[in-house]
Amino acid sequence: MKELIRSLNQRFFSFMDLGLLIFRLGMGSMFMWHGFPKITGGVEKWAGLGKSMEVLGITFAPAVWGFMSGFAEFFGGLFLAIGFLYRPMCLLLISNMLIAFSTQMLEGKGMLKAAQSLEDGFSFLGAFFVGPGKYSVDEYLGLQSSKQKGYSGF
């Protein structure tokens, strides 16, 4: 049994970059889908989104905070999907999800409502450490290398 599992692990390790591409395209496109109405909603929409920052004690410039949330979701999702500036985009999305989770919890919406933000944040945190893989703009531009020294895959 141990040899079967080891064999399967070795076989599927060769598809790691394909798995990262699928992850990036799936998560990136969903965040673009969620962010598009926010980024195109205009000042009134941005101010409504940014108003949730009041639970954190931030009452100034709600339209700016709302715009930044839409920007993080739409453009963060786009750049994540294509693997461009991948790690900075992961950090941007982690911070957006941390704020979303915090505001939902502080507004009393509970874990059932806030769980998705927390789960997405952990996904981006893991993705930050793993990197975009070889099928990415970062790899193409030489901003990261999937063949870094010392990487054995295990």
List the topology elements.
Elements: H1 2-13, H2 16-39, H3 42-50, H4 62-82, H5 86-106, H6 110-130, H7 137-141
Helix pairs in contact: 2-4, 3-4, 4-5, 5-6
What does this molecule look like?
There is one protein chain. The two termini are 20 Å apart. The protein is 73% helix and 0% strand. The chain has helices spanning 2-13, 16-39, 42-50, 62-82, 86-106, 110-130, 137-141. The chain has one domain (18-141). Mean pLDDT is 92; it is low at 149-154. The radius of gyration is 18 Å and the shape is elongated. It is an all-alpha fold. The chain contains 7 helices and no strands. Helix 2 runs antiparallel to helix 4 (62-82) and helix 3 packs across helix 4 (62-82).
Keywords:
mainly alpha; single chain; about 150 residues; about 75% helix
